[in-house]
Amino acid sequence: xxxxxxxxxxxxxxxxxxxxxxxxxxxxxxxxxxxxxxxxxxxxxxxxxxxxxxxxxxxxxxxxxxxxxxxxxxxxxxxxxxxxxxxxxxxxxxxxxxxxxxxxxxxxxxxxxxxxxxxxxxxx
Length: 124
Description:
By secondary structure, the protein is α+β, with helices and mostly antiparallel strands. It has four helices and four strands, in the order H-E-H-E-H-H-E-E. Pfam families: SepF.
C-alpha cells in the first residue's frame, strides 16, 4: 500500500532553476513566403510527336507535374518510334519513382514521385 502512495503522491517541491536557452540566428535562404505554403502541382497536356518530346515530358515530371500525353500523331506516323518513346518515358517514371498508364487509346498519363495511379481491375 505504501508503494502505491509513493507512485500517486505529489512529489515534494524543490526549488526550480531557470536555464537560459541559447538563441541562434538563422539566415533565410529562400524566397519569403507563407508558412506551410506548398508549391502547386500542374496537370499539363502535351503532344508526343517524336522522341524529342520525351525530354520535355521528363523535365515536367522532374519538376513534379502530371503529364497527359496525346500519342495519336506518333501512333499514326511511326508506331515503332512510339514504342521507343513510351519505353523511354516508362524508364524515366520508374527512375524518379513515378507512375505511368494509359487513359484511352490515344492518351497516356505520367505522374511524378508520390503520385500513384490506381488501375481498375477488369471484371471477370
